[in-house]
Amino acid sequence: MQILKVISLLLDYPTEQLLEARDELAAAIARAREISPQQRAALQELLALIGDNDLMDGQEHYGALFGRGRALSLLLFEHVHGESRDRGQAMVDMLAQYEAAGFAIGVKELPDYIPLYLEFLSTREDLEAREGLADIAHLLALLATRLDERESAYAGCFRALLQIAGVEPQQAVAEMRQQVAAEVRDDSLEALDKIWEEEAVDFLKAEQQDRCPSQTTLLSKAREEVPVPLHWVDFKHAESAAEPVQEVRNV
Fold first, then answer.
1. Separation of alpha carbons 136 and 81, rounded Å
2. Residue 204: exposed, middle, or buried by beta-carbon count in 10 A (0-12, 13-18, 19+)?
3. Which of 152, 157, 173 lies closest to 115, judged by CA?
4. Cα separation of 139 and 70, whole Å?
């Protein structure tokens, strides 16, 4: 499903490659019939926003949005397992899923990075891709709502994903609004300082118990500093092998 590849690129760290592929991405969005005209317009708006502004400004904005705090983390298991031991096993299981499908990732790439997961789903049959999104629909709705609260155009990506998963975006977001409205923002300098203090205390406790710090903790921090190089496709020639999907017209 080509539109999943497009969304994976839009959600990844902005690069020169993204800007160079702007026309191809815009054309791919226009062709997507898995999402409604309203969702296509939202993706086009985000693409224009990224392309019309200075790249370094866009990268700075992206880092401030997704790299501060955990509320908007693009790591799936950050939201599901936090820093528990279950997160490591979930990583192993996800890597096994990729390997079984013949989907190779780089050594610096965390398997639960959402743009990477979307790229993987874009290589699967439509039904499998939709089921994969449906499995994380609650998280997609939560991220869409949090981004809405921050008036971010990136919310359009998650609304489109919800629609592909078979979930009505407006309803899903509406159901999350009360929860998100009650949350305390975790991206302020004060909140970030508190998080680092808590992690330092946890590390000392683990050291006293002769344990090593979680490998996924270290990797997730490295992810914030190292952009994920996704695999690029030629949108001019790449065509979906699946049968055309009837256009969704109601949001």
1. 13
2. exposed
3. 157
4. 13
Q: What are the tokens at 87? A: 């997160």
How far is residue 97's CA from residue 27's CA, in Å, rounded to a whole number? 31
pTM of the model: 0.75
Q: Give the separation between CA 136 and CA 242, rounded to whole angstroms.
A: 23
User: What is the pLDDT tens value at each position of the chain, 251 positions in all?
Assistant: 999 999 999 999 999 999 999 999 999 999 999 999 999 999 999 999 999 999 999 999 999 999 887 889 999 888 775 565 777 788 888 898 999 999 988 767 888 899 999 999 999 999 999 999 999 999 999 999 999 999 999 999 999 999 999 999 999 999 999 888 888 776 655 555 455 455 545 544 444 444 444 433 433 443 444 444 455 445 544 444 444 444 454 44
181, amino acid identity: A
Q: Looking at the DSSP assignment, which residues form a beta bridge with residue 75?
A: 113
